[in-house]
Amino acid sequence: MSESGWYSHKPPGPLLMRPVPSSQSRLAELRRLVALELRTQLPRPRTWLTLGFAALVPLLITAAFAVGGAPTAAQGASETDFLLVATRSGLDMPLAALSAMAPFLLVVLVSIFAGETLSGEASSGRLRALLARPVSRSSLLASKALVATGLSVVACIEVTVAGLASGVAAFGWHRVVTPELVSYSQGASLERIVLSTGYVAVALGGVGAFALFVSTVTDSVIGAVGAGIGFALLSEILDSIPALGSLRDGLPTHYLLAWGGLFLQPAQLHPMLAGLLVQVPYIGLFSAGAWWWFTRKDVLS
Amino acid sequence: MPPQRVAFDLVTTDQAQGVPPVELLGLTKRFRNGVTAVDRLDLRVETGQVFGLLGLNGAGKTTTLRMLIGLARPTAGVIRIFGEAARPGARVLHRVGSMVDTPGFANHLSGRANLEQHWVAGGGDPASGDVLEALRIADLHEAAERPVKEYSFGMRQRLGLARAIMGRPPLLVLDEPTTGLDPQQVRHVRSIIRQLAERSTTILLSSHLLAEVEQMCSHVAVIDAGHVVAAGTVADLTGSASTLYVEVDDVPAALLVLGSMPGVAGFHLEGRGIVVELAGAERRSVAGALVRAGIGLETIMSRHRLEDAFLGLLAEGR
Questions:
Q1: Residues B115-125, mean pLDDT to the nearest whole number
Q2: Does the CB of A17 have a partner CB in chain B at under 8 Å?
Q3: Which of B92, B105, B160 sits opposite A124 (nearest CB)?
């Protein structure tokens, strides 16, 4: 270990003042922090494992159906479920994958991305180093939320793309047949598949916002991720109790599969619209809560 | 031995106006659970000082430093860094390098990538050479490309120090910078701090080690229960012995002897011994008086004020 004077090659004299960056707008700061967050998250093995998993599961479903055939109503698949028709066309497969994965697997992935944001930084001890810099906490939170949202959207897209690619390979490029036995051309169904994927991504927003909020409160990654999953499961359990009646319409996961309305004849867009509206208060409330808490938080960990 | 203070011709407007790098006025932190960690604490650190905050664990050192660098908000009081009111995310934090608690990193990234990210997050230019300089100072340039998860504890600590000194901030805030290091690493870290101090960096560090503060600091404040209980230059506080610490086999008899002795200003019990405040009497006259009275003398030590203030805290059993 060297103890020689590290500074000796420089002449004695005034120290340089630490360079102060030119005055930057909030937007420039946010862009810089988003780039940094991407540079942290993208090389992380966990990110790739999680994203890889999102693509792997549709492949497994396709493979299972190709070998053993699609489930039938008698095997417990509900009559409106795309799993029933998954083997009729490769274009049915992404829809089957979405309906199979959204209620649990995508919920888990979104909770991981959103729940890890700040609790992860706090538990690694990096948060206190970051916040000791002249960095706006709002910008930091926003950059984390944006990257978590981006990764969640990518996970949803992966499900669709992996389902579509494997489905077409296994079951061919045919017209889509819905569980109600309505048939759509390939072009018309592709449009609907894209819309459905986007819808699912938005419909998971409430769960993600909740996990983000908990992430600002706790230093435990497991706690924050688990809270997101628990929140979604609680919503799904309450949703399965008929006695609650129309109260269930306000649950964050109630309309998770409402994109199926796109494939009815005539299309039923009303549940999708309700599903989007329901997310507004959840996303708004929990994001505001995360901001309120994080900008006032004493970082003592 | 305190480091030699070298006067450099560092001319900034701050110094021209005599603005202290750190000024804390009535700083108070009460936590939600009712614990008051910092209680009306006043502190002023002048340019070029190596200022030690000496106190036991839980005395409020870390909480004070956390509030200073914007990690926690004070319940009351004023924090000024280079004359600017400091709050979380304040621009003046550009001029502060800090390491509080065990440093944390993105463990899957290299040491260099971690420093670069930290530098860029605060608006620094990644191409400025500051990252490499900091790695070199911390003697980590050879391990710079290895992921931090492969670093030893000591290397992580030095990487934390490198992160703090990146860009040569005029004010450096270090919370127990040598805790958990082996003796060789302690020596290395102290040598880095000393060299920075010689180049006019103002340093505020906390420690629970009396010897460390005596060795490294020019100024010191002893903190207990969130208060400053003694402060001054280390030379002042370690100057002439002002008290004696004695341990005897018959305490009541010794107290009688001391009570009637000229040149003794006062005394009080501390742990197993007695602290005698001298006002003219010398060590050997006190020892002689005790021995003549037939009291067995087990220990007799001179103490200077810094030891007094600090060891007094230890003896209270906290």
A1: 88
A2: yes
A3: B105
CA B15 to each of CA B48, B78, B104, B193, B219: distance values in angstroms, whole numbers, following the listed order = 10, 21, 34, 21, 18
Residues constituting chain A: 301
Domain boundaries, chain B: 13-237, 243-315
ipTM value, please give it: 0.84
pLDDT band for A70, please (50, 70, 90 cuts).
confident
Give Cβ neighbours of residue B232 (< 8 Å, ≥ 6 apart). B219, B220, B305
- Look at residue A75 and tell me if it is in a domain: yes
The answer, yes or no, to whether residue B237 has pLDDT greater than 80, is no
For A95, the 3-state DSSP assignment is: helix
Q: Residues A116-140: pLDDT tens digits?
A: 999 999 999 999 999 998 899 999 9
CA geometry: angle B121, B124, B130, nearest 5 deg: 120
Q: Which of A5, A15, A39 sits opposite B117 (nearest CB)?
A: A39
Q: Tell whether domain B13-237 is in CATH 3.60.15.10.
A: no
Nearest Cα neighbor of A22 from B163, B94, B165, B115 is B94
Contacts with B95 from chain A: Cβ below 8 Å: 17-18, 20
Q: H-type helices in B13-129, by residue range?
A: 13-16, 61-68, 111-121
pLDDT band at B129 (very low <50, low <70, confident <90, very high): confident
Rounded to a whole number, what is the distance in angstroms from the first to the last CA of chain B?
28
pLDDT of residue A5: 44
B185 reaches A (C-beta below 8 A): yes
Q: How many domains is chain A built from?
A: 1
Query: Tokens in use for B70?
Result: 């914007």
Structure tokens at B122: 């605060």
Contact predicate A201/A113, CB 8 Å: no
In eight-state DSSP terms, residue B84 is: E
Tell me whether A3 touches chain B (CB under 8 Å): yes
Joined tokens for residue B81: 């860094």
User: Would you say residue A15 lies in a domain?
Assistant: no
Domain range for residue A143?
26-296
Of residues B63, B108, B122, nearest to A135 (C-beta): B122
* pLDDT, average across residues A49-70: 93
- Specify the DSSP class assigned to residue A172: -
Tokens found for residue B55: 């106190």
CATH class name, domain B243-315: alpha beta
Convert the pLDDT of each residue in B161-205 to its tens digit. Answer: 999 999 889 999 999 998 888 898 899 889 989 888 888 899 999
Q: Kindly indicate the confidence band of residue B309, based on its pLDDT and cuts at 50, 70 and 90.
A: confident
Interface of A with B in 75-134 (CB under 8 A): 121, 124-134
Structural domain contains residue A5:
no
Torsion of CA A222, A225, A229, A231, to 10 degrees: 100
> Rounded to a whole number, what is the distance in Å from the CA of B261 to chain A's nearest CA?
51
DSSP state of A260: G
Residue A175 has pLDDT above 70, yes or no: yes
* DSSP 3-state of B274: strand
- From chain A residues 125-164, the ones with a CB under 8 A of any chain B CB are 125-137
